[in-house]
Amino acid sequence: METLAAAESLQVPAPQLFSLKGKHAFITGGSRGIGAAMAHALVDAGASICLANRSASDTATADALRAKGARVEILECDLANMEDAKSIFQKAVDVMDGKIDIVVNCGGILKRKEAVSVTEEDWDSVIDVNLKALFLICQAAGRYMIPRMSGKIVNVASLNSFIGGETVASYSSSKGAVAQLTKALSNEWSKYNIQVNAIAPGNIATDINTDLRADPQQYAARVARVPAGRWGYPADFAGPILFLCSDASQYVTGSVLVVDGGFLGR
Prior knowledge:
By secondary structure, this protein is an alpha/beta fold. The protein has one domain (20-258): Rossmann fold, CATH 3.40.50.720. The protein is built from 10 helices and 7 strands.
């Protein structure tokens, strides 16, 4: 049995816990919005980054990160293409000199429709991108990380992992599954020193919510339910992602961290 003295010997100064110097991170959905904010946070903490973008010509975020002096690689990947999803992690390992310490699955889509109008194609496309592709990447990461006895995986779930929402049946279903998948993978992989967690954003001012924010009534109704009194911003995810990707969260696994200004609590 590990002694208290042994446990205390593992402690390091608190600021050092959040350092990612020498770490390599792989991020989907990192070209804009929450994913881009997460990429900036990891780079600011010292990490090198591999971004999986739908288009390799989408370099705005990468250019901004490189301007900070970071190493940033871009790989083209369409998460709607399962062959891309199956192969992208190994490509990231190869381009990052055989090393990936952190995986952030932020890529996803939303199709807003009344449930009675959702087509089978609509349903499959959302489930494929938000859940199946995410699982395939996690699976590849697990196969890589298990023999190395180390790794951090952070999946992006949603407030809709807990609530059904309206006109988002496929999205809510996919994000509910992401939360449960995160727990299932943690149950299997924690013994290998791999921490698998998720972040669940609430009402965040990103492209995916442009239509809601453009509707004054919808916008006001959402704000009225948030105890913090505002929509969230991508920058609100810098701290949470750094915590979950660093040594500060070594005994945190299987958790879904809600970042919603208190919405769920109400």
